[in-house]
Amino acid sequence: DRPSARSHPRTCMKCGQGTAALVIRVGDPFCRGCFREYFVHKFRAMLGKNRVIFPGEKVLLAVSGGPASSAMVRQVQEGLSREAAKRLRFVPGLVYVEEGAVRRQSPEQREQTLAQMETLLQATGFPYHMIHLEEALELPPSILQPGPERSGPSSPSYKEAVDSFIQQQRQDGDSGTSLPGHGTQDTPAGPSATPCLPDAAQTQELLRSFEAAGTATAREELLQMLRTHLIVQTARDRGYAKVMTGESLTRVAVKLLTNLSLGRGAFLAVDTGFTDQRHGDVMVVRPMRDYTAKEIAFYNHFFGVPTVIVPPLFTKRREKPSIHQLVERFLLGLQEEFPSTISTVYRTGEKLSPEPAKASSESQRCLLCLCGLDIDGGEWGGHWG
Amino acid sequence: SKISVVHCFYFRGGAELLFDGVKKHQVTLPCQPEPWDIRNLLKWIKENLLKERPELFMQGESVRPGILVLINEADWELMGELDYKLQDQDNVLFISTLHGG
């Protein structure tokens, strides 16, 4: 049973004047204008607080067509276009992994999705890369190991990097971070501009791997792993040291409890935190983790952020739902009665910090997720004999 | 009043997949003695528009957690949620924030 209908005052609590358009958090009504400021500010604050994106560096944005990653691209666009003092100062590229094979899309539907996504990516003006999940079958074995980290005595601190960037700008006469005139398809030259579908044989092989996964949970994990590997490989191939992915607060909370259920409790910090450095030379950053799914949906609707929705990962007849789906249902359901549920899970996750890397050799890392094998047991090890 | 009221219902974010992929529905709700509040509207949508898997859209008498409802471009939490009484020409938008299945 739902609690009695919530009804909030219809004036914005921030400016006290505008008509409230939505309720944020637990009972904070915001008008459209104040909501936009709040949303845009949060992105800048997230990057500013964490200081891992150096000015002028290349950052690969992983785009799925879904609401969160699309909102992320919009925030990057907004940030880059701001007046000089507050402008974001990195060089974005986009990567899209087409997963139609495992989402039960026909070849025609896959082509339609690709066309829609290409339009979306082109409109940003950033270089973009469109790849198929089938390409995971051709990943080099090196993807199963972390790449050499760039940090060392010669690499600058964040502050040093900012200072030297500003100096360089003054010397260059501040031409600014120029964006390409129009979106450029950043793949080897081919006869047609639109990426075509992979070989039917490759699609079959990919489907075989997914069908071999015994449960919906395993299938979901396989998809996430292959997608991550493809994105990291693209980053490596194209010279990106940073990747941004669009996990929302809601998604992070679900992932946290899901991963706990999957026995990945030791790696919650790296799986859900703001930075994920397991790949060594490529750092994954999650700048949307402070935004709820609701905030993102409203922002996209109010401010015309385009998205491309695709069907979910295929499931077999009469198959039990995945742990991911169950946890999502559980958390969202609990949230109805207890509106602080998801943010509480999230904030608990924030308190976790990654263990310093103990793995001194490759044999101590998991091949698939690159996390150090949790065989030590830590301080509890002794108790279990 | 005996006049039927016309509304537009929109389904986004994947919710449209439950309605034959159709995002916009223009509807004239039949006259009835009970008021057309969101509660009754949802019952009507379930019986008349929903093409498959009602449990993916509804839970009990309300929408499934994860589905957002906007009435005339505003959060339904500001309008009384299920108790809001539909006026003529009101439009209602349902956005799914769920991740499939």
UniProtKB/TrEMBL annotation, chain A:
Domain of life (superkingdom): Eukaryota
GO molecular function annotation: sulfurtransferase activity; tRNA binding
Gene Ontology BP terms: tRNA wobble position uridine thiolation
Region (Disordered): 165-197
One Pfam family this sequence matches: CTU2
GO CC terms in record: cytosol
Biased composition (Polar residues): 165-178
Stored InterPro entries: CTU2, Rossmann-like_a/b/a_fold
Annotated keywords: Cytoplasm, tRNA processing
Keyword Magnesium set for record: no
PANTHER family assigned: CYTOPLASMIC TRNA 2-THIOLATION PROTEIN 2
Protein name: CTU2 protein
UniProtKB/TrEMBL annotation, chain B:
Record localization: Cytoplasm
Entry keywords, A to Z: Cytoplasm, Isopeptide bond, tRNA processing, Ubl conjugation pathway
Pfam family, one: Urm1
Cellular component aspect of the GO annotation: cytoplasm
GO biological process, one term: tRNA thio-modification
Pathway participation: tRNA modification; 5-methoxycarbonylmethyl-2-thiouridine-tRNA biosynthesis
Family: Belongs to the URM1 family.
Protein name per UniProt: Ubiquitin-related modifier 1
Annotated organism of origin: Mohoua ochrocephala
Gene behind this protein: Urm1
